[in-house]
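new request in #modeling-help
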Amino acid sequence: MTVKNKVIVITGASSGIGEASAKLLAENGAKVVLGARRAERLAAIVNDIEAAGGQATYQVTDVTKQADVDSLVQLAQSTFGGLDVIFNNAGIMPSSPISALHTDEWDAMIDINLKGVLHGVAAVMPIFTAQKHGQIITTSSVAGIKSFAGAGVYGATKFAVRNLMEVIRMESAQEGTNIRTASLYPAAINTELLHTITDEKTKQGMDAFYQQVGISPQAVANVVNFAVDQPEDVNVNEFTIYPTKQV
Ligand SMILES: NC(=O)c1ccc[n+]([C@@H]2O[C@H](COP(=O)([O-])OP(=O)(O)OC[C@H]3O[C@@H](n4cnc5c(N)ncnc54)[C@H](OP(=O)(O)O)[C@@H]3O)[C@@H](O)[C@H]2O)c1
């Protein structure tokens, strides 16, 4: 079973990597179910997909709430009659030095980038286990495979989800449930992510860096599409996506 006709839930689908992935997957025949907090953005993306002949629906979803993610998954099943893939992509990156003690932002990153992914996992695990089929794709980051000054807590959440994806893959192989996982490690991708940085000095540095090297989220969407397109017995599980110009 390739991308065509797969039912795919995508969180963080209202902009950037999630939006680009939703559009590409729908173009290739997937039925996509979009979740994020901004309703107007989601509605506009669903309109674009339908105007291009694709199938999509959306529901306002806050990934910090298990009930919201459960409900998004139920919407996929009731609208399209099943579920094949969840793309846990919602995330924020209010980076700052640890010494600045932006502890509210630490909490928000843990709630969205880590617990949000766990909520996605918990929502699909009973379905995937029962049907012995399913794929969980999660957007980690290059900050999830190496350390960056200024990204201590962000990186901690991204290292954590990397571990989670690998353990789910291993346990599923042990349990014979055929659940495949993939972690994406994008580097500088031009999206709205830098809007979440409140630390002025960090923001200036990151804005300048992204202007210099950043690439389109389409690059990540292409990789998501590739992962979904693999045969059932193939688990492609780790992808770094760098701008060619980025060191
Ligand atoms: N851009 C990069 O350079 C880069 C590099 C490595 C990893 N990443 C990761 O890529 C993922 C996507 O980010 P992006 O770069 O595409 O940035 P983006 O354009 O800012 O997209 C982030 C998405 O997450 C959603 N989101 C944030 N909080 C949420 C919540 N509580 N509940 C549901 N959705 C929420 C946002 O939608 P709403 O605001 O409408 O909820 C938006 O759709 C993130 O996990 C990010 O950490 C990005």
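bot summary: The helical segments are 16-27, 39-51, 66-80, 103-131, 152-175, 200-213, 218-228.
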